[in-house]
Design a protein that fits this description.
The chain is 27% helix and 27% strand. It is α+β, with helices and mostly antiparallel strands. Strand 1 and strand 2 form a beta hairpin. The radius of gyration is 18 Å and the shape is globular.
């Protein structure tokens, strides 16, 4: 079987089934003492194009996608470990600009690695600490689903041949983590990511698409692009964030638009 048949979710499930990976069901790994660790890699030609974004923008994005996982864990960010693979002909000024972009997050770079490569690869590990990690497995029937901000900005930017710098929702993540039953960052599209909560929590999630706040210039189709990096949380009751749906008895994800079933795609690596 090939990865194109399994997809990313299938690969992870197979690793779990074989005992080759464990405790990988949430946005980040939770260690003793409330330590939370996450890692993401951005590969040139897959996650970014340098003719669409500057080195500074790339760095901000690389940091933000990891800090988003810490936000979904209700964590304070303590540091970044950065591994950089780059062609030897890369200009020093470009690399300095990249690290200046990382510094703009105000989360210090504490170490990492550098190596020669045929294309640019930026891998960031974010380390933080959280008093309570909601995870993806605690959503309950009767919970309200909320998002921390508008969606679709990344898809809209891609249609204009550019990339959006993700928001940082660390403060909102800490606020929600105090009482949320489940929480995830929206990296693969709201339908796909809601499905992770539904699967791990053993519930059905209903999303009313007309209630999802849209970013400026975004269209409904952009909700399936992913890379918005807002947070989706299942909560018993709250009034601060935008409600977009609910949890019910059952399984899977149902999207509706004005009461009618609505199809929405999402992103999955390898497929």
């Amino acid at each position: 079987m090939r990865l194109s048949e399994l997809g990313e979710a299938g690969l992870l499930a197979e690793l779990e089934r074989r005992g080759l990976a464990q405790r990988i069901e949430h946005d980040a790994a939770e260690l003793e003492g409330g330590v939370v660790v996450t890692q993401d890699a951005l590969v040139e030609g897959v996650h970014f194009r340098l003719d669409w974004s500057s080195m500074r923008e790339l760095a901000g994005r690389a940091a933000a996608v990891n800090l988003s996982d810490l936000a979904a864990s209700g964590a304070d960010a303590e540091g970044l470990i950065v591994s950089l693979a780059a062609p030897s002909a890369t200009r020093l000024e470009d690399i300095l600009e990249l690290y200046e972009g990382l510094a703009e997050t105000e989360v210090p770079v504490l170490g990492g690695d550098t190596t020669d490569a045929g294309q640019l690869v930026l891998s960031v590990t974010a380390v933080g600490r959280s008093p309570r990690v909601p995870g993806r497995a605690g959503a309950q029937a009767g919970d309200q689903l909320v998002v921390t901000g508008p969606l679709g900005a990344s898809g809209a930017a891609f249609r204009r041949q550019s990339f959006m710098r993700p928001p940082l929702r660390l403060a909102e993540g800490k606020e929600l983590a105090a009482h949320a039953h489940a929480m995830i960052d929206l990296s693969d599209g709201i339908a796909v990511d809601a499905g992770h909560i539904a699967t791990r929590s053993g519930c059905r999630i209903v999303i009313e698409v007309e209630r999802v706040p849209l970013a400026p210039r975004a269209e409904l189709q952009d909700l399936g692009f992913g890379e918005d990096y807002e947070l989706l949380a299942a909560v018993a009751d709250q009034k601060r964030f935008s409600p977009v749906g609910r949890c019910e008895e059952g399984e899977g994800v149902l999207l509706t638009l004005d009461g009618e079933p609505y199809e929405l795609g999402g992103w999955e690596h390898f497929r």
